[in-house]
């Protein structure tokens, strides 16, 4: 009987067609001695939610819930034992439903019912009426998941919170579909169809938290209770997720202008012809269009029963409208010009790097373990520079008094021979001013060691996030660091001997030389792409959450744009001096990007800037840096275009990026 109440929570302000017929309201509080009958409701404080009896369309029964349609009006009140109950409206004696919570004896005639602004109906008692309720409707979902609600599975008790669809759009009885968590798949959100098993499931790795406009999703499988939930960082955004009677799990957004709910991702109602079709004159048809780009996430549906000719006739008869994203040929020409100018500069960098190394980039000198032990004073703690995922890094001095950084694979590291050989193979063939230079290696007595040029200013995270060290990074240095990282990424994507996706760009993997020039390091997780390859997929997602693009973290899909997304996060960290990982869930500051965007919308954009350099920064520089970050995080831009924005210092206006309005 627990889940009965959930379905009567209706979005009062959102919906133009209320299922309630009422004349009075008792606000959001139900106390002993008061009741809700057919013509009354509880209203949440902001007016967004209402609770009451309703009659579904095409249905003559008055219902409070799924399992118990009422032939006559019922009464909702607090029972004599303190539970929420529904009684027969005529006699007020026959019990139809109860919250059936275990209550202390002292709770008799002392409980209250509260309808919260979240849409949660709470049975409260004592001081912590809302923080520790005796019963709440959010624990008993119906077909709808509201922001901050959870679907969950307790690993120890197998107790579940699941959604259950309606039997039909006008019939609130339990339908054929349910949605919950199945640890056997593993740890995925699954829709089951009655008597047939799993019907649909989510992505392989849903444990990342990411930002899409004002909507964030969280999935946690690290505790006894595995749960899936979502939240809204902007209180003006009104969302709800519904498991439809046909088994579709949809996310709905309230449109204030049209006073309707629209399904996110459904654009079928947005395409309108400017000129009417001249039906019957045979002037409409299919044309071959070149220099076009299909949308990144396009899905092609094939009619296996018909040929191409049949498809043409099918669409012509129905006067179908097909919309395709177009990339102008002018954009391609601009890319070619930018590419040539950058290639000229990169060619000089590569020549200088090769000359400095004295090698052809394909072979490295092997160093003996004894010489490395001597250079690092037997891996002394005094020589230790730091430690990363690969293992500790030590400062060493070679016999020629050359300072080097020596990276030693840790026995405890999750990385191993594969990552060691991957870095050795890749970085030995890369020579660029903004990539760290590999000088040698050692693979002796089960030791795997890489020798790099020494970076006296250590890694970027040691400076930009340290309250005392960050003063070394004025605006000019920060700007040059951003540009240098972009140059390095462009080189490995476009102009190196191998086309490489780094997959782990983050502040700790950006090293700074004596002049504060950035150098990208740690290619152990990098992957080589073919010249015509645009995307790859992996079941083994590696890298650092917060820097990963959503499609990589959730689906394992990676490409050049994965690095571009990470670069965008780096820009904001460099500008703000704040770690992306320092923000918490279900807060307007969910991520660094969310925090920055909220400040920007409120006209407080200068607060994004690191206090240590804020006075030296003008608004134009901030705006330009912020929009370069946003372009990168949209995951639709290649690094070459971002570098063009950086070098030419485009002053983008906030209205120019309509997708975020």
General description of the model:
The protein has 661 residues and is an alpha+beta fold. The protein folds into 4 domains: 1-138, Agglutinin, subunit A (Orthogonal Prism); 141-266, Orthogonal Prism (Agglutinin, subunit A), CATH 2.90.10; 369-453, Phosphorylase Kinase, domain 1 (2-Layer Sandwich), CATH 3.30.200.20; 458-660, Transferase(Phosphotransferase) domain 1 (Transferase(Phosphotransferase), domain 1), CATH 1.10.510. It contains 11 helices and 38 strands. A 5-stranded antiparallel β-sheet has the order 17-16-24-23-22, with no helix packed on it. It has a 5-stranded antiparallel β-sheet with strand order 28-29-30-32-31, with helices on both faces. A 4-stranded mixed β-sheet has the order 1-6-5-2, with no helix packed on it. The model is unreliable at 1-25, 60-68, 204-216, 293-362 and 648-661 (pLDDT under 50).
């Amino acid at each position: 009987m627990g889940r009965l109440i959930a379905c009567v929570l209706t979005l009062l302000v959102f919906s133009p067609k209320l299922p309630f017929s009422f004349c009075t309201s008792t606000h959001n509080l139900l106390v002993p001695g008061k009741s809700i009958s057919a013509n009354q409701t509880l209203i949440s404080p902001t007016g967004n939610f209402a609770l009451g009896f309703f009659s579904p369309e095409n249905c003559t029964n008055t219902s409070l819930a799924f399992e118990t349609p009422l032939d006559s009006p019922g009464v909702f009140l607090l029972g004599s034992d303190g539970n929420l109950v529904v009684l027969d409206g005529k006699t007020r004696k026959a019990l139809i439903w109860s919250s059936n919570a275990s209550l202390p004896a002292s709770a008799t005639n002392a409980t209250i019912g509260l309808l919260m602004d979240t849409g949660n109906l709470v049975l409260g008692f004592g001081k912590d009426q809302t923080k520790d309720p005796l019963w709440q409707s959010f624990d008993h979902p119906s077909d709808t998941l509201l922001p901050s609600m959870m679907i969950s599975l307790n690993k120890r008790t197998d107790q579940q919170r699941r959604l259950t669809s309606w039997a039909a759009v006008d019939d609130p009885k339990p339908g054929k579909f349910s949605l919950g968590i199945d640890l056997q798949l593993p740890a995925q959100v699954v829709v089951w169809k009655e008597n047939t098993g799993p019907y649909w499931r989510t992505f392989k790795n849903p444990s990342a938290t990411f930002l899409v406009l004002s909507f964030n999703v969280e999935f946690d499988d690290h505790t006894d209770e595995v749960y899936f939930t979502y939240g809204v960082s902007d209180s003006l955004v009104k969302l709800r997720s519904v498991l439809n009677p046909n088994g579709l799990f949809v996310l709905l957004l309230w449109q204030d202008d049209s006073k309707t709910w629209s399904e996110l991702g459904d654009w079928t109602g947005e395409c309108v012809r400017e000129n009417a079709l001249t039906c019957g004159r045979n002037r409409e048809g299919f044309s071959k269009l070149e220099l076009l780009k299909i949308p990144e996430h396009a899905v092609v549906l094939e009619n296996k029963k018909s040929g191409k000719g049949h498809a043409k006739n099918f669409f012509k008869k129905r006067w179908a409208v097909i919309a395709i994203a177009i990339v102008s040929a002018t954009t391609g020409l601009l890319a070619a010009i930018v590419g040539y100018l950058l290639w000229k500069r990169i060619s000089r960098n590569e020549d200088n790097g090769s000359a400095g190394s004295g090698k052809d980039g394909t072979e490295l000198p092997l160093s003996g373990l004894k010489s490395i032990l001597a250079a690092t004073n037997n891996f002394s703690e005094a020589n230790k520079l730091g430690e990363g995922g690969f293992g500790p890094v030590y400062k060493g001095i070679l016999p020629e008094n050359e300072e080097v950084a020596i990276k030693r694979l840790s026995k405890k590291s999750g990385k191993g021979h594969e990552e060691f050989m991957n870095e050795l193979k890749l970085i030995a063939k890369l020579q660029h001013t903004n990539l760290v230079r590999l000088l040698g290696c050692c693979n002796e007595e089960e030791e795997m060691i890489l020798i790099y040029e020494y970076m006296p200013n250590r890694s970027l995270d040691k400076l930009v996030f340290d309250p005392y060290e960050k003063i070394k990074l004025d605006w000019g240095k920060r700007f040059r660091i951003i540009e240098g990282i972009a140059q390095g990424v462009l080189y490995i994507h476009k102009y190196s001997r191998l086309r490489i996706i780094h997959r782990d760009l983050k502040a700790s993997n950006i090293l700074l030389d004596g002049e504060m020039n950035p150098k990208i390091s740690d290619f152990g997780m990098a992957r080589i792409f073919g010249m015509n390859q645009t995307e790859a997929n992996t079941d083994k997602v590696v890298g650092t959450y917060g820097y990963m693009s959503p499609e990589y973290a959730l689906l394992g899909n990676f490409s050049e744009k994965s690095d571009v997304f990470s670069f965008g996060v780096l820009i904001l960290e460099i500008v703000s001096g704040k770690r992306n990982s320092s923000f918490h869930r279900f807060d307007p500051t969910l991520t660094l990007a969310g925090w920055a965007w909220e400040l920007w919308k409120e006209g407080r954009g200068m607060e994004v800037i690191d206090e240590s350099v804020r006075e030296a920064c003008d608004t134009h520089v901030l705006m330009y840096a912020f929009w370069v970050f946003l372009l990168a995080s949209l995951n639709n831009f290649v690094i070459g275009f971002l570098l063009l924005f950086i070098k030419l210092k485009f002053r983008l206006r906030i209205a120019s990026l309509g997708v975020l309005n």
